[in-house]
Design brief:
Length: 245
């Protein structure tokens, strides 16, 4: 685990978009980023969850966030173009993008892979992230320096039996990061992945129903890597696959 200790104002004046900000790791990252001075844009599927995170941030006295309700499964390229325009109008540019939202889908033997579920997982975990990034890159290039973080998994670095489309999507995520990081090399935009490792969230409980959640790290405990990659401390880190644990 990274021993990085973020200073209080390390994200001051930065605007950071977090996907899947209503629950789990995304919720914790959004609140941590706000706590360190960032204005966060909370993107997610369930508006009520986003509003709860919004209230938590405002009540704590951190910079007022923004909410973007969007289901990545049904989102179109135009949705992302419109979102980029709105962010440009309100904030001028975007300093950070944490691609955190993803879906686990059904785990099981390869022969049981269902085409519709495979398409749905790839849409949310890969296609949506690629097209959103494409739309946001122009306003990220306007930032003094910008950080894009994709969220990977252990099964996106080494294949594991029965992890099906989720694992394929995480390998694709690593590939997307490498392609974009190489294109951005030497520019003001840096691109990396984080593998959070086993973390106490709903997704983990769904994947390992028999596991005692108390044996797992909390989302809060894995935040140093998330803070490091968003802060200017990581300005020279590009194309890296990091582990949060
Ligand atoms: P959770 O399932 O707890 O939270 C996922 C978040 O993503 C939720 O806020 C959810 O919104 C949102 N989301 C899911 N689908 C969509 C969609 N179609 N459109 C918009 N938002 C969506 O997951 P975790 O916090 O555990 O995982 C976060 C990331 O970390 C994921 O990329 C996951 O693959 C990765 N990861 C997690 C590990 C772990 O042990 N927890 C281990 C390795 C990787 P809503 O609540 O509204 O459905």
């Amino acid at each position: 685990m990274l021993e990085y200790q973020a200073v209080k104002d390390s994200l001051n004046n930065k605007t950071i978009l977090v996907t899947g900000a209503g629950a789990g790791i995304g919720r914790t990252a959004a609140i941590e980023y706000a706590k360190h001075g960032a204005t966060v844009i909370l993107l997610g599927k369930t508006v009520k969850k986003l509003e709860t995170v919004y209230d938590e941030i405002v009540n704590a006295g951190y910079p007022t966030p923004a909410i973007v309700p969007l289901d990545l499964k049904g989102a179109t390229e135009q949705n992302y173009i419109d979102m980029a325009e709105t962010i440009a109008e309100q904030f001028g540019h975007l300093d950070g993008l944490l691609h955190n939202a993803s879906e686990l889908g059904a785990l099981g033997p390869f022969e049981h892979i269902d085409l519709a579920s495979l398409d749905a997982i790839m849409k949310v975990n890969v296609t949506a992230q690629a097209i959103m990034t494409k739309a946001l890159l122009p306003i990220m290039r306007k930032a003094p320096c910008a950080s894009i973080i994709f969220t990977s998994s252990s099964v996106g670095r080494k294949g594991r039996a029965y992890w099906g489309p989720y694992a394929f999507s995480k390998f694709a995520t690593e590939g997307m990061m490498q392609v974009l990081a190489d294109e951005c090399d030497g520019t003001s935009v840096r691109v990396n992945t984080i593998n959070p490792g086993a973390t106490r969230t709903e997704m983990r409980a769904k994947a390992y129903p028999g596991e005692d959640p108390q044996t797992l790290k909390t989302a809060q405990q894995i935040m140093p890597t998330y803070l490091f990659l968003m802060s200017d401390e990581s300005i020279n880190t590009n194309g890296q696959a990091l582990n949060a644990q």
